[in-house]
Every structure is written in structure tokens, then in C-alpha cells.
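Sync notes, pocket subgroup
Present: LS, DG
LS reminded everyone that the earlier model was apo-only. Rerun requested with S-adenosylmethionine included. Inputs:
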Amino acid sequence: MSEFGAFLEKNKVAWNQRTEIHVDSDFYDVAGFKAGRSSLKGVELSLLGDVSSKSVLHLQCHFGQDTLSLARMGADTTGVDFSENAIEYARGLSREIGVDARFVLSDVLALNLGETFDVVFASYGVIGWIPDLQKWVDTAALHLAAGGELVLVEFHPLLWLLDDPTRADYFFSTQPDIETENGTYTDGGADTAITTCWWNHPLSALFRCLKKAGLELLSFEEFDHSPWGLAGMVEREKGQFVLASRADQRLPHCYAIKARKTAAPPSPASG
Ligand SMILES: C[S@@+](CC[C@H](N)C(=O)[O-])C[C@H]1O[C@@H](n2cnc3c(N)ncnc32)[C@H](O)[C@@H]1O
């Protein structure tokens, strides 16, 4: 087991607990999803563009709504997650709505499917669960065909500090921020204590990792709101949520990156 193994095991327990709560939450609105609503938000939809006839690897797919939303758009999708409950639910959801997608149970850091994809996609609350960001980006690159694109839409690493300055460092530390709280970020589960381990990754680290993995940055954008209304946020405009404690300021809430796998990885001399 790596130095991070015990933390990752804790997170897996947490995500199994969270999944049980999330599938019944208003936040994830599974009934609406079954009725045809896409779970994808405008930012990722515009970065992903037309995915029909594309192969998409969706990292940390949770219980499958985004993966299946992409499949509904005509993509050939594979979702990966390390939570047994999430993957089991995702497979059931796929069967129930009659939309095909492959779901793979794996720690994303151990993933090697032996195939490549046109697009690797991940969104909203993914890299903070990852102690080794370079390995995560390398895994995305490993699964991209030459010319394929990584689309990552993520909460901004400053967001958590803006809300609670005592919560964590901005810069990465091998020691995660360990938190136990009752419930999760959705409604429901108030009687369930859940412990999570979180690593904050500054944007500079992400850019360094992309370059090292041979991924050329095509676009980078920051947003002054989140499309997901998390605890402690208010809806400033329709579909735009901001920290209630800082609602009068325009502060970074999310960012989006698109990067392309160049035909060959950069030589070591290019840094
Ligand atoms: C916040 S969710 C991702 C958000 C997703 N866009 C959604 O549908 O809400 C984070 C996911 O990452 C998964 N995860 C966390 N660490 C992981 C790891 N090391 N390997 C694979 N999956 C992991 C969790 O199980 C969870 O499903």
C-alpha cells in the first residue's frame, strides 16, 4: 500500500456512504434525470462540443449521470470510479434508462485500460481526492489518443479557503485535510458521520503536470460562480451559485481546462 493507501481507503468508504445518500437526494434529482434531463452544465457542454461518435473516458464518474448524459448525446462512454456502490448504481441506471455505457470499478490512479479515447473528461470535485496529481494527469494522457483532448471542469482551489480560511492550505501538502461531518454536500444523510481526506492542488501544479504529461493547454477559464449550489452558497442569478458569505464580491468558484495530447510527449530537455 502506498503512503496514501489508508487515506484513499477512508475516501472509498466515504464515497460509498455518500453514494447511498446522493442517489435519493434532490440535489442529484435522479427522477428528473431518468425523465431525460442532462446532468451536464453549460461550461462542460461548450468545451466538449459535439461528442456524437466520439469515445469518452469519464474519470470519477460517481453514480453515472454525467457518463450517461454523454451517452445520450451519442458518445461511446466509459465511466470509472472506485466506489463499488457508485458503479453498481450506475450500471443499474444504465439498464433502467436503456442507455449503454461501460462502467469500470477502479482507483483512477491504478487505471490502465489498454485503449485510448478521443476525450477524457472529469468534473466538479475530482482532483482534491487525489494525492498524486501528476499520476492523475499521466493517467488521463495515457488514455488519450494523439490529438485527443482532456476536459477538466473543477472547483477552484481557492474556493474552500475563501469560505473557511482555517480549512486547508492553498498549496499542496502530502498530509490531507481530514474532515468528519454529518451528512454530505447534498440534502439527506444528516445522521451519517462521514470522514474525508482532501488534497488541495494549486493551479500552478496542474499546469506543470499537464506540460510534463505532454498535454498542450488549449484553453483555461475561471468563473465567478458555481453551477452547483453547494452548502453555504446562494443563487445569485439563475443557475449561478456563490458563497453566501462573500456574495457581494466576484471571486473564483470554478475553472475549466481543455488540453490536447500532442503526438509525442515533450522531451525531458523542454522541462
Ligand atoms: C464529487 S464526485 C465527482 C462529481 C461528478 N461529476 C458528479 O456526478 O457529481 C467525486 C467522485 O470521485 C470518486 N473518487 C474519489 N477518489 C477516487 C479515486 N482515487 N479513484 C476513483 N474514483 C475516485 C468518488 O467515488 C466520487 O464518485
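DG: The pocket of S-adenosylmethionine is lined by residues 8, 11, 15, 60, 62, 65-66, 81-83, 86, 107-109, 123-126, 129 (CB under 6 Å).
LS: The first helix runs from residue 5 to 22.
Action: DG to write up.
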